[in-house]
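Researcher: I've been going back and forth with a colleague about how ABC transporter substrate-binding protein might be arranged in three dimensions. Neither of us has a model we trust, so I'd like an independent prediction. The organism is Antarcticirhabdus aurantiaca, in case that matters for your notes. Sequence below.
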Amino acid sequence: MDQLVAAAKAEGQLTTIALPHDWCNYGEVISGFKAKYGITVNELNPNASSADEIEAIKANKGNTGPQAPDVIDVGLSFGPSAKAEGLLMPYKVSTWDEIPAEAKDADGHWYGDYYGVLAIGVNTDVVKEVPKDFSDLLTDTYANSVALAGDPRSAANALMAVYAAGISTGAAGGEAAADAGLEFFKKLNDSGNFVPVDGEAAPIAQGTTPVVLNWDYNLLAVRDNLKGNPPVEVVIPQSGVVAGVYVQAISAYAPHPNAAKLWMEYLYSDEGQLAWLKGYCHPIRFNAMSKAGKIPQDLLDRLPDAAAYEKAIFPSLDDQNAAKAAVAAKWDTVVGANIQ
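Model: Here is an independent structure prediction for ABC transporter substrate-binding protein. You can compare it with whatever you and your colleague have in mind.
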């Protein structure tokens, strides 16, 4: 670690991409890393999608300047595909053994960092009747109200929201769940309930998108940051509880490879994992840290009702890839909504 710290400090900078400060408490994570190691963090396009992150690596293969990302944080399906394209540098952090085998590449090209479940966020100043499940969203109560947090053809959270909607109808998974989810959003769009706007914090607060499907940790962070103005309620749906794992990786073309490795060591340390948990993201080492008594009770008490998570399913990578292909191919023809 001493040698790695010295090498990273000599590089002097780390370039990240797609890390909004209210996503998984990344604001505190980034400031903690900077304070601990005195390394500048260059933050590119905080609201970029997983697909944008991959394209940024491709577009900057020969560029050592400030537009070349050193590290990425992407949806699970993007890890193996980026590895297959030769875009990732293998690296195993010192806490590697505490990352579940099913959530990492055996060779260290990508590794799970945190997970959450798809939830429903509601601005209760605008929407008085809080939905309890996906099926509720199809009723007249939610006219011109429901949005995704991104485009499901490129953003992992939006893709998995479509998938979760399909699972809630009883679909088995994979392409079947995607097809059912597309039909769900067709109904939502045809009825006038779907709002084709990226439902981030501002449009939730403004009432443009008063009902948003997104990861629980994003919606809980929005709720906390708005501090009741307006009030936001976060609901884990009664059916279709779908969990999603995100993964970290280092660009094979990283201009600052040692800073990138040090960043990974920080993220997978107890300090980094607990910082994510403060942002309501279940860190990938959660079970191991819990068994070791490393998670403060006050953090556990801030999480939503644990019983709601007992229903969660973790789609396999094959299921996700099948869903991703189906949604990318059929969204325009089935749903026909262009998300702005």
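Researcher: What would you highlight for our discussion?
Model: I'd start with this: The longest strand covers residues 111-123. After that, consider the following. The domain at 116-242+311-334 is CATH 3.40.190.10 (D-Maltodextrin-Binding Protein; domain 2).
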